[in-house]
Design a protein that fits this description.
- The protein is globular.
- 41% of the residues lie in helices and 17% in strands.
- It is an alpha/beta fold.
- The chain has 13 helices and twelve strands.
- Helix 10 links the parallel strand 10 and strand 11 (251-254).
- The two termini are 22 Å apart.
- It has two domains: 2-124 and 287-310, Leucine Dehydrogenase, chain A, domain 1 (Rossmann fold, 3-Layer(aba) Sandwich); 128-280, Rossmann fold, CATH 3.40.50.720.
Length: 320
């Protein structure tokens, strides 16, 4: 995978021939993570590769506690979730292009400098999870999406990961953004115009604009699954319905998987004739991308299938 190859730009491997049987640990740092699915998924994926490594939850926003765990010789990698994706990235030794452009870190991996000293590299695997979920579902997606519009629903950090993934790997003509707050979209446009020169972003501010534009080939939704109530939320839903109703149908990807992978938007897209990918698929692919960086091995496909099967049923609230 390109993410593994690129990781060695930051140093050499810390692993040895016996590392998979060594007592290494990986961690998730964040708030309100007691119901996280990460231990389940990483446990399955570790076992599928023959690694006797353990995955732990650390509920904290304390940078010193994070750094103490990070720099332990037994730590092989970490996952970072809200509200730490920006602040914890500041204590790492370097950031990948993805982390810098998106502006958030969700993963750190270890590489060695020329003197053999450990370096802690921050990256963003949310974007890789989006890409892999799409191309594993449809191997022709990169070719068919090229030169056609794409669309992102939302205005937070996950939306930025989706914009990065779509523009970098699927070459759309432009990316529509649907969001309840124009101010968030303004910030996104300003950020990406500087970070990814040449990117084409358009805010869909009303139903008439949505109706007049060509249908996107890929849509990625990053918003929670709850009934729209505020005016901005209701307008977003109406715009999505208008897009779903176009004659041309594409692929809809939802990053939300709570409380059920079959979100309201997935149901609406399915009903309108769109192909759909649920948030659980993206979630697993994000974990797989993390493990590729930590174990330096390509994923075991049986393990990936087992991980997906383990979380296909409706779940209680969880955070990666």
């Amino acid at each position: 995978m390109d993410t593994l190859r690129e990781s060695f730009h930051y140093g050499s491997s810390p692993l040895t021939a016996s590392s998979l049987s060594s007592p290494y640990n990986a961690y998730l740092f964040g708030s309100h993570i007691s119901k996280s699915l990460s231990p389940l998924l990483h446990g399955i994926l570790f076992r599928s590769l023959g690694a006797s490594w353990n995955f732990h939850l650390v509920q904290t926003t304390d940078k010193q506690r994070f750094q103490d765990k990070l720099t332990s010789p037994e730590t092989i990698g970490v996952s970072i979730t809200m509200p730490n994706k920006v602040t914890f990235g500041l204590v790492l030794d370097d950031l990948t292009e993805a982390a810098q452009v998106i502006g958030a870190v969700n993963t750190s991996f270890v590489r060695l400098d020329s003197a053999g000293k450990r370096r802690y590299i921050g990256t963003n695997t949310d974007c890789v999870g989006i890409r892999e979920a799409i191309v594993q579902y449809d191997s022709t997606a990169v070719a068919t999406a090229k030169g056609n519009p794409a669309m992102v629903i939302g205005g937070g950090g996950a939306a930025r990961s989706a914009i990065y993934a779509l523009w970098k790997w699927f070459s759309p003509s432009e990316i529509y953004i649907v969001n309840r707050l124009k101010s968030e979209v303004d910030d996104i446009v300003k950020h990406f115009t500087a970070a990814m020169p040449g990117i084409q972003l358009q805010y869909l501010a009303d139903i008439e604009t949505a109706q007049s534009l060509p249908a996107p080939s890929i849509i990625v939704s990053t918003i929670p699954d709850y009934p729209p109530s505020e005016p901005g939320e209701i307008l977003c839903w109406q715009i999505c319905e208008k897009i779903f109703g176009k004659v041309e149908k594409g692929l809809f990807v939802d990053m939300c998987y709570m409380p059920s992978p079959e979100t309201s938007l997935v149901k609406a897209a399915n009903k309108a004739g769109w192909r759909t990918i649920s948030g659980t698929e993206v979630l697993v692919r994000v974990c797989v991308a993390q493990q590729v960086l930590w174990t330096e091995r390509l994923p075991n496909q049986q393990g990936v299938s087992e991980a997906i099967a383990a979380i296909t049923q409706p779940q209680s609230a969880a955070k990666l």
